[in-house]
Amino acid sequence: MAHASEPSLHSHSVPSGTETAIPEAERYVGAVLSIRGAEACVGILSNNGSVPDGEGTTVGKFLAIVSHNSILIGFVTQISIEMPEVARDHGYVASARLDLMGEIKADPKGAPRFLRGITEYPLIGDPVLAVGPNELRAVYGRDNDATISVGRLQQDASLSAYINVDEMLSRHFAVVGTTGVGKSSGIVLILQQLLQVRPNVRIFLLDSHNEYDRCFADSAQVLNPGNLKLPFWLFNFEEMIDVIFGGRPGVEE
Q1: Phi and psi of 208, rounded to 5°?
Q2: Would strands 71-80 and 62-66 be described as parallel, antiparallel, or unpaired?
Q3: Is 56:44 a contact under the CB 8 Å cutoff?
Q4: pLDDT band at 176 (very low <50, low <70, confident <90, very high)
Q5: Cβ atoms of 125 and 112 closer than 8 Å
Q6: Which pLDDT does position 83 carry in this prediction?
Q7: For residues 219 and 183, what is the distance between their CA atoms, to the nearest angstrom?
Q8: What distance lies between CA 93 and its chain's CA centroid?
Q9: Which of 67, 140, 190, 221 has the CA that lies 20 to 30 A from 42?
Q10: Distance CA 233, CA 108 (A)
Q11: How far apart are CA 67 and CA 117, in angstroms?
Q12: Does domain 1-140 have CATH number 2.40.10.170?
């Protein structure tokens, strides 16, 4: 579906240094209709067959907004056929709400780099594209000495998911999920990969359920009630009494 009033992808200049992160023109899906804080409303055009079946715009997908000097990455949180009549007159068949996660800009060397947060918000009419492999590589990192591979991307199984080691170690982070989704396995994978690239890193792991005892072979020193020895000077008076008389009935005197 083509309309003369549709925003044109080619009418926007490609942000300097991020040309390789722009997908082909047929990935064009619509344009920005409104902005509210870190949320953008996007008008979605009818699929003209250029986007393969199963890869259309829906909740959980990423979209890229080509702004003046950056590529904004948004996560689709809502899809609806409700939209202003003026948007329908421009050929849009649905609207999508995006949570803006960050932006791809050129680093000092000219390579695309993903930064969390938004420094410059898009304008109404800015073109919106389906996120391709180049954008995903920029968001989820590339293979180098500073990264470790922790699996494959759900959005594109042909791409590896990388974590920047130094950024991970210098910040707080959490691994969350429901029971049985693989949190423990994920933690083991991250730590094993981390020890390969940073063998001198010291990790103190509290394993209350004895899940990780056999996961690190000779790389770990495992302390348990059977081999843990503490010096007496480490205990206070109450703890010392408990050690000496712990198996005897208490005496009030």
Answers
A1: -70, -20
A2: antiparallel
A3: no
A4: very high
A5: no
A6: 83
A7: 21
A8: 30
A9: 140
A10: 56
A11: 14
A12: yes
The residue ranges of every structural domain in the chain are: 1-140, 143-253
Structure tokens at 205: 């792991």
For residue range 132-147, what is the model confidence (pLDDT) as tens digits?
Answer: 888 888 888 877 778 8
3-state secondary structure 195-252: HHHCCCCCCCCCCCCCCCCCCCHHHCCCCCCCCCCCCHHHCCHHHHHHHHHCCCCCCC
Give me the phi and psi of 225, to 5 degrees please: -60, -20
Q: SS3 for 133?
A: helix
Residue with tokens 């990935």: 27
**Using an 8 Å Cβ cutoff, are 141 and 113 in contact?**
no
Measure the CA–CA gap between 229 and 104, rounded to whole angstroms.
53
Q: Which of 107, 103, 84 minimizes the C-alpha distance to 94?
A: 84
Contact 45, 1 (CB under 8 A): yes
C-alpha neighbours within 13 Å on the C-beta side of residue 189:
14
Cross-strand partners of 81:
none
CA separation for the pair 223, 205 (Å, rounded): 10
For the record, the structure tokens of 163 come out as: 């974590």
Asked if the model's pLDDT at residue 9 lies above 50, the reply is no
Query: Tokens 């000779």 label which residue?
Result: 218
C-alpha distances out from residue 203 to 146, 206, 209, Å: 18, 10, 17
Tokens of 82: 């409700």
Lowest mean pLDDT of 48-57, 124-133, 148-157, name the range: 48-57
DSSP per residue over 30-61, as a string? EEEEEEETTEEEEEEEPP-S-SPTT-SS-TT-
Which pair of tokens denotes residue 40?
A: 């953008």
Q: Which two tokens stand for residue 229?
A: 């020895």
